[in-house]
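Async update (no meeting this week)

Hi team, since we skipped the sync, here's where things stand on the single-chain job. The sequence we agreed to prioritize is pasted below, unchanged from the tracker. I ran it this morning and attached the output directly underneath so nobody has to dig for it. Comments welcome in thread, and please keep replies under the output.
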Amino acid sequence: MTITWRRVGEPDFPQLRQWLLQPHVARWWNHDTSPEAIARHFAPAVRGEEPSEDFLVALDGAPVALVQRCRLADYPQYLGELASQTEIPDQAITLDYLIGDPRLTGQGLGTRIIEAIITATWTDHPDAQSIVIPVHRANRASWRMLEKAGLHRCAEASLEPDNPADDRLHFIYRTDRPTH
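Output:
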């Protein structure tokens, strides 16, 4: 099975909407899923007006996931919130991700996708020294996947949750650029 990815385009918005409507995704992403809201959220990155890199991930050519990658420094308020609670290296990258089809969860696909994106990040962003990913403490599947992908929990932080029903406690995961 081959994992590939490409930048999200406007024709992908219906697929993203379908995924964001899935209960296992909606629980953690908590987005307005109207077509207009999807366009408002994703179109700026598609047009290059937002520094985030949004990737549609495919397994053997079939879309299965979304990965968002960005430099924390491009979002100073969020960086400040994180840096006030844990060390954030210069040029740190963060990722957000989802697997759209619930039938594909729990099978190691997320781990494989994150491992591949991390490997590509070291090439795509040669000045990035670390990848730092906050995960809500209740999202056990997500933080276990990060651990399986080789990230380590480096801190706990009080951060604004994506879902207002959640408390503020997040686990911070990190991996550093390999030195070999």
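Quick observations from my side:
The first helix runs from residue 13 to 21.
The radius of gyration is 16 Å.
Reply here if anything looks off.
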